[in-house]
Amino acid sequence: MTPQVRPTNRRIRTLALSATVGALVVTGAVMFTNTAAAATTLGAAAAQSGRYFGTAVAGGRLGDGAYTTILNREFNQVTAENEMKMDATEPNQNQFNFAAGDQIANYARQRGMLVKGHTLAWHAQQPNWMRNLSGSALRSAMLNHVRQVAAHYRGIVFGWDVVNEAFEENGSRRQSNLQQTGNDWIEAAFREARSADPNAKLCYNDFNIDNATSAKTQAVVNMVRDFKQRGVPIDCVGLQSHFTGGSNYPSNYRTTLQNFANLGVDVQITELDIRNAPVDAYRNVTADCMAVPRCTGITVWGIRDSDSWRSGESPLLFTSSGAKKPAYDAVLNVLNSTTTPPSSPPPGSAFNLVGSGSGRCVDVPNSNTANGTRVQLWDCHSGSNQRWTYTAGRQLMVFGSKCLDANGAGAGNGTAIIIWDCHGGTNQQWNLNSNGTISGVQSGRCLDAAANGTANGTQLQLWDCHSGSNQIWTRRS
Ligand code: XIL
């Protein structure tokens, strides 16, 4: 077995240096030549704290090798720039076309990137047939759209911008055709999305909700508070953060992020671009997200300036020829200086992982928090040594700071599954697949109860995915 140590990840190297667990074999060259280096890509750097760093992707550019080289190297999350919008997915009423959206989602998932859905209900980029509807016909068409699209992408996207841009600058509701179907259209869309995809994070997304004191920001805060109080399902708020320059990055941006988080939702920066890519503004935006435990990820709205919807303003992290700009280095440095996980998990979000063959739970023996402790099957109970949370960085976290880990960054059949300090490496990232298997991002192999065991004490390992009952897991909250 050749351990796959990613030379960019210092935490894996720390593991290599300090682990005492038997199967670990790492060459001295890897151990000793790279110990001080930080992560060298945006995605890997963000993953160290359980966050993602993503980009908008235009399907038409996936044939451009210079574009995909940067995409594949730097990012661990994507948002379809246009391909999952209403006009793209339902060009004729009740005739859905998911080809372009699927292309992006498949591309991303094959490379272990998260996919954010954007967007189910919006006043803009509506198909013509929808623009011409009103009243109850429009309301039911909108809900049908939410239901069909969210159902199609169930298990594929980790979350949705359910509603986009529904407020005016003065804090009133935007007078769109959707608003004219009744003030409850937003909550109706969220409820429909929840029932179509119960596991997706449901977000409200908008621009100019960056300044904590503006009327628009406060209106969205009030809506989220109201939704939380009345049990309308909402999990996150996205701040688009299309800034026109260093000047309109508000000094209270971090407060705004925290104010939303205080309502019990995650926050994300969803469409970041800043005119002329000023170093300080990019650095500050990134640092503000890192400072807020429930800020789970940042998405820039395109890769190179030439890819930008605002290409005349050169607002992105890469030049049109694909070179990293100074703002890139500033962002990377901030991400690298943040290694604490994004949050102590919100109450109620932890779950037991129950093996379908055994009925027993993934368990850390004796609640031993030491790095290298090998996990096992055990009778399910509610103890903290069986309570896992799934982070935006795809980690399965226990005890608030330990992660389910393929030992020694191993990828082969039989690799032991242990707990280790969370470090963002791909040997600590897991895909929760829709068929119930849990596969390692690095290895592609599945979490497996060894030798098809079902008894207390059965150890867990990596094995080729075969969907046997010793590889199927359900989350029980
Ligand atoms: C933009 C795309 O980048 C363009 O390609 C398209 O022509 C128009 O939409 N807010 C949003 C995004 O939520 O969907 C928008 O994307 C930018 C503003």
What does this entry look like structurally?
- This protein has 477 residues and is α/β, with parallel strands linked by helices.
- Helix content is 27%, strand content 20%.
- It has helices at residues 10-18, 28-33, 42-47, 65-74, 86-89, 99-110, 128-131, 135-152, 185-196, 215-230, 253-261, 279-291, 326-336; strands spanning 52-57, 77-80, 114-122, 159-164, 201-206, 236-239, 242-243, 266-274, 295-300, 352-355, 361-363, 376-378, 389-390, 396-398, 402-406, 417-421, 430-432, 438-440, 446-449, 460-463, 473-476.
- The strands form six sheets. An eight-stranded parallel β-barrel has the order 1-2-3-4-5-6-8-9, surrounded by five helices. It has a four-stranded antiparallel β-sheet with strand order 13-14-15-16, with no helix packed on it. Strands 10-21 form a two-stranded antiparallel ribbon.
- Strand 13 and strand 14 (396-398) form a beta hairpin.
- Helix 8 packs parallel to helix 9 (185-196).
- The chain is globular and about 60 Å long.
- Residues 1-36 and 343-348 have low confidence and may be disordered.
- The structure holds (3S,4R)-3-hydroxy-2-oxopiperidin-4-yl beta-D-xylopyranoside (XIL).
Please outline the helices and strands:
Elements: H1 10-18, H2 28-33, H3 42-47, E1 52-57, H4 65-74, E2 77-80, H5 86-89, H6 99-110, E3 114-122, H7 128-131, H8 135-152, E4 159-164, H9 185-196, E5 201-206, H10 215-230, E6 236-239, E7 242-243, H11 253-261, E8 266-274, H12 279-291, E9 295-300, H13 326-336, E10 352-355, E11 361-363, E12 376-378, E13 389-390, E14 396-398, E15 402-406, E16 417-421, E17 430-432, E18 438-440, E19 446-449, E20 460-463, E21 473-476
Parallel strand pairs: 1-2, 1-9, 2-3, 3-4, 4-5, 5-6, 6-8, 7-8, 8-9
Antiparallel strand pairs: 10-21, 11-12, 13-14, 14-15, 15-16, 17-18, 19-20
Helix pairs in contact: 8-9, 12-13
Bound molecules: (3S,4R)-3-hydroxy-2-oxopiperidin-4-yl beta-D-xylopyranoside.
(3S,4R)-3-hydroxy-2-oxopiperidin-4-yl beta-D-xylopyranoside is lined by residues 81-82, 164, 240, 271, 309.
